[in-house]
Amino acid sequence: MSERRSVREILVELKDTASYVVSLAYASLLSRDIELAREVIELENEVRDLRDDLFEAILLAARSARRRGEVRSLTTLLEVGYVSMQIANVAADIAKLAITGGPLPLYLVKALKEAEIVTGIATVSSRSKLVGRKISELFNPPVLSGCDILAIRRGRTWIFDYDADEVIEAGDQLLLKGTAKGVKEASAALGGEVVVQGPLGMVDVPVIRNILRRMKDTSESMIELAYTALIYDSIEIAREVIKLEEQMDRLYTQFEREVLRVAGADLASSLPPALRVAIASENIADAAASLAELVIDKVTAHPVLKLVFKEAEETAILARVRHGSYLDGKSITDSGVEEKSGMRVVAVKRGRRWAVNPPSNYVIRGGDLIVAVGMPEGAKVLLSMVEGRGSA
Questions:
Q1: What's the pLDDT tens digit per position in 133-171?
Q2: Which domains does the chain have, with CATH numbers?
Q3: Does the pTM exceed 0.70?
Q4: In 3-state terms, what secondary structure has residue 288?
Q5: What is the DSSP secondary structure assignment for residue 263, as one 8-state letter?
Q6: Sheet holding 147-154, edge to edge
Q7: How far apart are CA 180 and CA 113, in angstroms?
C-alpha cells in the first residue's frame, strides 16, 4: 500500500494527471512514439492506485462525518476519482494504437491538428535564442505564449518530471500542448519545426474529419465546464454540459452514419484509430455529464475541491467582462487573451446563450460571462483584462 496522504494531495495529483495524460496519449498517437505510449499506460496504473487511495481516505472521513450534508459532499470527491479513472482509461486506449502500429487515416491526423488544443513536438535548433535558458524563464514573463511543455526528449530518453530549472539544450525535442497558434509560435521560437511522424493513410474524408474534431473539442471542453460548475455551484453551467452531452450523442450517431456511407476498402483499414478516438471523446463526455449531474442534483462540492483547484497545475475561472475593459469589443485573436494569459476561453455566455469553444474571431462584449482554463498564474492576467486594469 502506498504511503497515506491527505485527500487534498491525492486529488491534486489525480486532477493534474488526468489533464496531462490525454494530451500525452494524442501525442504518442501522432508521433507513433512507443515510449510516450508506455508512459501513458504507466500513468493509467498510477491513477488507479491514486483512486484506490482516495476511496480509502474518503471511507475513513465518512466514518467521522456527523451530518448528512457532509456525507453527500464526499460523493463529489468520489466522483472526481471515478472521472479521473475514466479519463486515464480513455488515454491508455488511444496510446495502445501507437504501440500496435499501422497507418493513421489522413482525416484523423488533420482533425487532431485542427482541434482547439493540439500537441506537437518541436526540435530545438542550435541557433535558437532559447538554448541555455531554464524552463522557468520561458513562462515568467511568458516567452512560449499559448502553450505548455509536457515533456523533454534528450537523446533517446523522454524526461517527464522535469525540474523548473532544467536547461534547454540544442537538439532537445519539446513536447508542446496549447492552441495551434501557440504551438506554432513556440516552435518558431525554438528554431525547429513541429514533428509529425508515422505512416499516413491517403484517404481524407472532410465530413468525418470535421465530426471527429468537434467531438474531441466538445468532450474536452465539457470536462472543464463540469469542473467549473462543480466548483462554482452553477446549475446553469451544469445544464449546458448536459446539453452538450446530447450534442455529443448526435455527433457520434452522425459519425457512424458517415462511416457507413463512405465505407469501402480504402477506408476500412483506417477505421480502428478513428473509432477509438470517437469512442474516447464519447466516454470523456459521459464522465463530464456525471459531474454535472451532481450539481443539478444540488450536491454541494466538498470544500477541499476549491483548494485542489487552487493548487492544481490547471485551474478554471468564471469572470464577468466589465464594460469598457480591455477585452470589451475585441476578438479573442485581436485581444491576444489566450497568448498573454496562457488561459483558453472555453465558453462565453451572452444573455441566455452559451458559445462553447468560441472561434478565434469571436468578439467579446461587456457583460459577457467567460469560462477560462489554464495555469493559476494566468488567471490573474486574465482577470486584469476582464476588469479593465490593462492588457497584461
A1: 998 888 765 667 678 899 999 988 999 989 889 999 999
A2: 7-111+201-306 (1.20.58.220), 125-191 (3.30.70.1450), 314-387 (3.30.70.1450)
A3: yes
A4: helix
A5: -
A6: 157-159, 147-154, 173-178, 118-123, 194-195
A7: 8
